[in-house]
Amino acid sequence: MVELLEKIDKATSSEELEKVRIEILGKKGILAKEFAKLKNLPPNQKREVAKELNEIKQQCLEKIERKKEEIKEKELYQRMEKEKIDISLISHTLTSGGYHPVIETMDRILDYFQKLNFAIEEGGLVEDDFHNFEALNLPKHHPARDMQDTFYFQDGYLLRTHTSPVQIRTMKKQTPPIRMVAPGTVFRRDFDLTHTPMFHQIEGLVVEEAGKVSFANLKAVLEDFLRYMFGDVEVRFRPSFFPFTEPSAEVDISCLFCGGEGCRVCSHTGWLEVLGCGMVDSNVFKAVGYENVSGYAFGLGVERFAMLIHRVPDLRSLFEADLRLLEQFRNL
Ligand code: DAH
Q1: Ligand 1 contact via 243 beta carbon (within 6 Å)
Q2: 306 and 329 in contact (C-beta within 8 Å)?
Q3: Cβ–ligand 1 contact at 329 (below 6 Å)
Q4: Nearest C-alpha to atom 3 of ligand 1 is from which residue?
Q5: How far away, in angstroms, is 74 Cα from ligand 1 center?
């Protein structure tokens, strides 16, 4: 009897316990053999021994049951130990992302104009000669086309060199008044410290009945916009030339780095050029069939704004996907 209970006690796994159970209680097990012997005993002993055997059987069953629970618990702990995941080791790759500085700058610019009720318009990246040049008063062989080195496709299509064609497409599908900004990527064959073959522009256009908008409106909006973007800066309008506007101007802000004293960034002029603008040329209105209207337009490079705001010295670094640079903008 004691031996049997010890046997049970020695089992260390479910399998071992099951083996022991069969050995003791199975059909051909130790107890079965003992029970079989009963028939050879004289009747007076038979009852006695049978009773004893039944008690032993009962005890073995109980012991096995207890042992089973014990082993089950032990095995559960062993399994938990083996399958344990150390959640205290947080992987450093689980950091959150952030906006790219160019996109963040673009969003800020669009925010400003949306508050002034400008609609956001978008055009395709592949344009034809008419929308990218011709309708913008840049006829074939016009010397101003040299300002933009263009990626051409073989069939006469091209990658847009500016977002100005969106002006044309919007005017063609709508009637005045128009108040729109067109953000997007543009492409030119250029690559150096301040030029990449792909960059982002935002074009603005306002068209009203003739006489309802003037250069003064353009000036007021852009001055306010530039102070919204750059804080307390001086703004100056310089006469310039764009084929699609007449008169045209380039707009400068006082240098953010030296406050106008003159430094390397502003080439010692005290000024930083930030955008182009003007009153829409009558030839542009003619190309889209508009009459008796006036309007103004402007265009800016988003990377230039981002570089000035975040003091990034090399434009190309914005597109190298170098996490060391991008991580600095994670909390924008
Ligand atoms: N399209 C010009 C460029 O890419 C930028 C520009 C200048 C747009 C003056 C305008 C404008 O609408 O009035 O260089």
Answers
A1: no
A2: no
A3: no
A4: 162
A5: 77
Element at 236 (helix H, strand E): strand 235-242
Q: Ligand 1 mean position to 70 CA, how many Å?
A: 82
CATH of 101-329, one of 3.40.190.10, 1.20.1250.20, 3.40.630.30, 3.30.930.10: 3.30.930.10
* pLDDT tens digits, one per residue of 287-300: 999 999 999 999 99
Question: Is the shortest distance between the CB of 250 and ligand 1 below 6 Å?
Answer: no
Beta carbon of 133 within 6 Å of any ligand 1 atom: no
Asked whether 287 and 134 are in contact (CB, 8 A), the reply is: yes
Using a pLDDT cut of 90, give the percent of the chain over it: 66
H or E element, residue 303: helix 302-310
Rounded mean pLDDT of 58-76?
Answer: 92
Q: How far is the centre of ligand 1, averaged over its atoms, from the C-alpha of 35 (Å)?
A: 106
Angstrom distance (rounded) from CA 38 to CA 51: 11
Q: Which residues make Cβ contacts (< 8 Å) with residue 175, sequence separation at least 6?
A: none
The residue nearest atom 13 of ligand 1, judged by CA position, is: 277
Which residues in the chain are classed under CATH 3.30.930.10? Answer: 101-329
Residue of 129, 312, 301 lying closest to 198 (CA atoms): 301
